[in-house]
């Protein structure tokens, strides 16, 4: 009887009836978390998809699995092969995990501007990490082009090409979008997140638009230095990318193949300054106990702005892509924040969280 009572009490915390099949089986089905403070302020339900709870720690676990399995199905990747990618971090980490689980070698080219935490984690996962100078996509020495060229020199190797490989987008059509629809019981009114490869934004938007017969609004969230905001606002006539941002892994200088099929589905765009992003990041830590990276904080800021535009009574969903622990040596460093001109953007009562010099 005691055992039955304990099980009855504990069962409300049980989210799965059986174990998952290894690391890969644990990808997806992340919680949808209500951001209580922002929901109260706006009169909306502001919900964040907790993608930092994927087993590899980010939303990119989904894309990593889909691009590798697409290569397997096509025959391009055989047992014992090598996966090569150009990535600002999280896709590489997801690929490194998936490669370990499936027995592939993993080579990652990345801009040398990325956080040391990401580089160290990739190495711990057994990846061959190759930081290269950060140059624009149209430069032949861009990290993506270097990854492609290297893969072409190997036998039984694939360049997974996250930016233009639409298996990335498909991951979110098949998993993220349906999960959000089920978790909101079809009551979602708006979706917003930033784009890098644009797989998350495009795939989730495509599913939610189709399942709701176009009712769900989709707003692209963009940092300074990215062209998506100007492209949407100008209806494709401008690719202005003025400014720069502290965010990693988001922002784009072109329309990727993942975004191109769905660009017409975007209802509006929001440009989120770094000062708003960092303020939200610290506020979420203080008020919600949620420890997010900068791109995730930008997404939550965009959801807040979208809620204000749409008005009370709406349900707005965004993506909390990863946690702050991959960036903590920067985001919680007073010296770094001051160098970026962001220390004063953090309210006085939140300055106590700046714990690193």
TrEMBL record:
InterPro entries: Cys_Synth/Cystath_Beta-Synth (IPR050214), P-phosphate_BS (IPR001216), TrpB-like_PALP (IPR001926), TrpB-like_PALP_sf (IPR036052). It is an enzyme of class 2 (transferase). PANTHER family: CYSTATHIONINE BETA-SYNTHASE. GO terms for molecular function: cysteine synthase activity. Its EC number is 2.5.1.47. Signal peptide: none annotated. Pathway: Amino-acid biosynthesis; L-cysteine biosynthesis; L-cysteine from L-serine: step 2/2. Catalyzes the conversion of O-succinyl-L-serine into cysteine, the last step in the cysteine biosynthesis pathway. Can also use O-acetyl-L-serine. This is Cysteine synthase 1. It comes from the Eukaryota. GO terms for cellular component: mitochondrion. Keywords: Amino-acid biosynthesis, Mitochondrion, Pyridoxal phosphate, Transferase, Transit peptide. PROSITE patterns: CYS_SYNTHASE. It is found in: Mitochondrion. It holds the Pfam family PALP. GO terms for biological process: cysteine biosynthetic process from serine. It catalyses: O-acetyl-L-serine + hydrogen sulfide = L-cysteine + acetate; O-succinyl-L-serine + hydrogen sulfide = L-cysteine + succinate. The keyword Flavoprotein does not apply. Belongs to the cysteine synthase/cystathionine beta-synthase family. Residues 26-321 form the Tryptophan synthase beta chain-like PALP domain. Its cofactor is pyridoxal 5'-phosphate.
């Amino acid at each position: 009887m005691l055992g039955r009572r304990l099980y009855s009490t504990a069962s409300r915390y049980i989210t799965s009836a059986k174990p998952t099949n290894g690391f890969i089986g644990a990808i997806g089905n992340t919680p949808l978390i209500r951001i209580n403070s922002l929901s109260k302020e706006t009169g909306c339900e502001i919900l964040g998809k907790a993608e930092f709870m994927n087993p590899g720690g980010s939303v990119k676990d989904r894309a990593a699995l889909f691009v590798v399995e697409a290569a397997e199905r096509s025959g391009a990747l055989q047992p014992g092969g090598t996966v090569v990618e150009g990535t600002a971090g999280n896709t590489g980490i997801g690929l490194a995990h998936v490669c370990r689980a499936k027995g592939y070698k993993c080579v990652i080219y990345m801009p040398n501007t990325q956080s040391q935490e990401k580089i160290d984690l990739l190495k711990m996962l057994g990846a061959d990490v190759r930081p290269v100078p950060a140059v624009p996509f149209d430069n032949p020495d861009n990290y993506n082009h270097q990854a492609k060229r290297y893969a072409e020199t190997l036998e039984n190797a694939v360049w997974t090409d996250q930016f233009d490989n639409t298996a990335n987008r498909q991951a979110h059509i098949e998993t993220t979008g349906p999960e959000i629809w089920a978790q909101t019981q079809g009551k979602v009114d708006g979706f917003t997140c930033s784009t890098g490869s644009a797989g998350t934004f495009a795939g989730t938007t495509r599913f939610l638009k189709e399942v709701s017969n176009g009712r769900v609004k989709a707003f692209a969230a963009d940092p300074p230095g990215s062209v998506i905001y100007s492209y949407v606002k100008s209806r494709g006539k401008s690719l202005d990318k003025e400014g720069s941002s502290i965010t990693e892994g988001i922002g784009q200088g072109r329309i990727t193949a993942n975004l191109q099929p769905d660009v017409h589905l975007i209802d509006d765009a929001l440009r989120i300054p770094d000062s708003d992003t960092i303020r939200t990041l610290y506020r979420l830590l203080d008020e919600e106990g949620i420890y997010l990276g900068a791109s995730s904080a930008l997404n939550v800021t965009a959801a807040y702005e979208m809620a204000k535009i749409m008005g009370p009574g709406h349900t707005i969903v965004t993506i909390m892509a990863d946690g702050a622990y991959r960036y903590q040596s920067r985001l919680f460093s007073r010296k770094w924040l001051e160098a970026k001109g962001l220390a004063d953007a953090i309210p006085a009562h939140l300055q106590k969280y700046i714990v690193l010099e």
